[in-house]
Amino acid sequence: MPVISFAELSERVEAVLRKAGFDQLHAAALTRIVCAGERDGAKSHGIYRIDGIIRTLQAGKVVPDAQPVVADDGSAVIRVDAKGGFSPAAFEAGLPHLAERARKLGLAAMVLNDCVHFSALWPEVEALTEQGLAGLSMCPSYSTVAPAGGTRPLLGTNPIAFGWPRADGVPYVFDFATSVAARGEIELKRRAGETLPDGWALDAEGQPTTDPEAALGGAMLPFGAHKGSAISTMIELLAGVMIGDLTSQGALEALGTTTLAPRHGELVLAFSPERFAAGRSDPFAQAELLFAAILGQGARLPGQSRHRIRARSLAEGISLSDDELAGLDARLLA
């Protein structure tokens, strides 16, 4: 497979997005997320997403030059109005305010409103760990997941991500959908002609299916049955209802399709471990004892493989298929 450097991939992706019509602010922010996915081996969140980005733009469902507006009233809640643009630029606009407020108060929240959500949340919580803060991020999606015991789409894939800073620079980070799998994973299996594992999805009649096409026309299932369903509902409440934005059902009704990126809101929480510990202990040292105990049993920490792949990608380059490279070139020549 062809190998391309991270810098060269970033340059190509940004050029594709600029040619498509995004201004420099959004093209650069989106490029950072897309290329991070490829760099870290998360193919379902890499250049595969470019088609959806451009399709959403061409449908008139995202503002390519929106200028995020940060509202900071000095309280623990920072608000960012994304003005209908993709979420990465809005997150980056509010991040310095969120980090400063979390260090000052111990806990702060950032509300992103009216944003078109894009891709993974782990880059966001990683950005908080780089500030020495713990972080929690969550957002709804659009209705593609049946609640536990249900048969029709109602909840979103509703991702949630958490990050904890570590002295060695490799934070403890998890990021997962509250559905059994991300919707992008099902689409990739459809493209590859593969079947789904049992327990991933229902068809349009509410019957279990392993056919990706039938699953995309039916409903995915929450992970952990009622447990995942409850967490997904919590995200609808906190990152939709509570922040005055759309739930997954409202986002689907507004958009009318699952082929474009959904427009709704997002909630990001930032914590200062030192402020919470209040001198009773060293929270970072205590965390390392916990991590060492986990590793001591032969288990691994989430994100470890991502960082190993990241280090290899930065040193040796990123492998892309001929078709993937040709797709980027075709976008530039179109």
TrEMBL record:
<dbReference type="InterPro" id="IPR043144">
    <property type="entry name" value="Mal/L-sulf/L-lact_DH-like_ah"/>
</dbReference>
<dbReference type="InterPro" id="IPR003767">
    <property type="entry name" value="Malate/L-lactate_DH-like"/>
</dbReference>
<dbReference type="InterPro" id="IPR036111">
    <property type="entry name" value="Mal/L-sulfo/L-lacto_DH-like_sf"/>
</dbReference>
<dbReference type="InterPro" id="IPR043143">
    <property type="entry name" value="Mal/L-sulf/L-lact_DH-like_NADP"/>
</dbReference>
<keyword id="KW-0560">Oxidoreductase</keyword>
<dbReference type="Pfam" id="PF02615">
    <property type="entry name" value="Ldh_2"/>
</dbReference>
<comment type="similarity">
    <text>Belongs to the LDH2/MDH2 oxidoreductase family.</text>
</comment>
<protein>
    <submittedName>
        <fullName>Oxidoreductase</fullName>
    </submittedName>
</protein>
<dbReference type="GO" id="GO:0016491">
    <property type="term" value="F:oxidoreductase activity"/>
</dbReference>
